[in-house]
Structure formats: C-alpha cells, structure tokens
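[[Sequence with tokens]]
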Amino acid sequence: MLVPGLLFSVGGHMSFGNGGIVPKIIFAIQNLLIQQNGLNEKKENKNSLVMKIQKMVPYGKKIMQGMAAENGNVGKIEKTGKKVKGVKDHMMKTETELQIEEEMKPPILKSVYPPDIIDSLLNTEGDFMDILIDLGYVKYNLDQFPNALAENDPKLKLLDCGYFRLKQEEKYLTYLIRLFLDNKESGHPFALGLDLNDLETCINPIVSLDKMHEYIVLSLHKYFREANTYIIEDEILLRFFQKGFLREAISGIIYFDKLDIFVMYGYDMTLPVFIKSDKTFEKYSKIAIEHGLHIRSS
C-alpha cells in the first residue's frame, strides 16, 4: 500500500514514503483507525482506508514519533530538523518551554489586604507624613549629599544635568534592593499617583522612563485590579517604581513592613524615608554610606 507524503522511519531516519515496503508503523495506524471506527478490516475498502490514513497524518505523525522514541529509532524530521521526543511532548509543555514563557512575561502588581499601619494611614484624614510622625516614625532624607544644599551651592547644577542624575540612579537602586531583599523580597506600594486603569494617562509619565518600562506598564494595565495596597515580589518591578520616584514620573510610597521603613517619592533625587526604631536607623544608615548615599536629617 502506498501512502504518499506520509512521514515514517526507515533505518533510524525520518523520511517521506512514496512507495516500497509498507513499514510496520502504517499497520499500527490502520489498526488504530479500525478500532476507533469499529470497522472490520476484512470489509474495509483499501482506497477508503488510504484516504482515512491520509486524513490522520497529523495524528499518525504523533503516534509514529512516540513509537520511534520507544524503539530507540529516534531520527530527524526533515521539515523541522528536531529530534523526535514522543507523544508526551506533544501533549504537554516541557519544563523548558514553561521557563521560556515565564521569561517573556513582564511582572504584575498583586493587590493585597493592607497591613494595619497602611490601613490606618489610608483611613485617617491628614497628611501621611504627619500621621507617621504621630505614630512614632522619624522623617529622614535618602540623599547623595550628606547635608542639604544651600540655595547658592554650585552642586545644585548637578541636579539639573540629566546625565549626572542617571549616573547616580544605580546607587539608589542597589540600596533599595538591599531593603527589598532584607524584607524577604517584598514591599508594599500604596498611594500610587499612577492611574493604571487609564492607559493613556499612565503612559505619559513613562516616556521619561526606560523602554523596558513600557512593557511593564502595558502588563500592569492589562492585569490591574484596583486596590488600596499592593505587593511587589519582583526586583524588576521594584526598580520600575524606584526609577519612577527618582525621575519624578511616579508618586507613591513603599512600605518595607519587616524593617519598619517607609520610602516615598521625592524631588531632586532626595527621597523621604520614615524609620521608627534607632536600631533600624543605625543599620541602614551604615549600609547607605556603603552605597555612596546618606540618610540625613530632613
């Protein structure tokens, strides 16, 4: 029996059969068709069976690949140049494929029930800064300069230089990532000045951010669920918000709950930081200096 165009294995290699001796795999497909359709092999018309097999080529190809893998006759498919992996690989995604898909997905912002202190801030009238101070937090500034610059300080020119500002960003980012890691790789952003429900308005400030952030914004918009508080569990997303704070493109607050630290957006690369305990202040002041930064009095 001839089955034009059917892919089968001869001598350990996959090829297209156009004649010759019919391999055993063809009979396997025939038997499969007979069982599925309740046909009697003796009564089946030969030409009709050929037509059915031709229609079953895509399915038959999977069966052949599985049998070839089981029998050790794993050859190459001429059309794809890939090794046959068997029926199982066609039925489910491989671990590698899942990893590739995961790498292609921008991170999403998850909504969470707000911790008590955030819930209190959101439900109390007044300025967040004043409320935090009433709760025992002390306001500091995370800055690249050890002291506030006077109005006539020539270093103020540096803050008007885009190149200089971008060059300094990594200091802040590596420091804030340290907070993120010490906080068990999480942070709670809230009071965000970024309306992710409205794609047009949230894209505007992103123009000043990196190209990568456009993909992040589109992803955040697509999966956005409006809530009071969210959780960041991805370093890339943390960088996104912190760059937004530093470039004055996004407003908001990030709370590192296990460290009793709040970091707010600011201006001129000065970020307000609220810390409650002296122990936390001493530890993270030293770490800031290691990163070329200072936690100074506001």
About this structure: The chain is about 45% helix and 15% strand. The first strand starts at residue 6 and ends at 10.
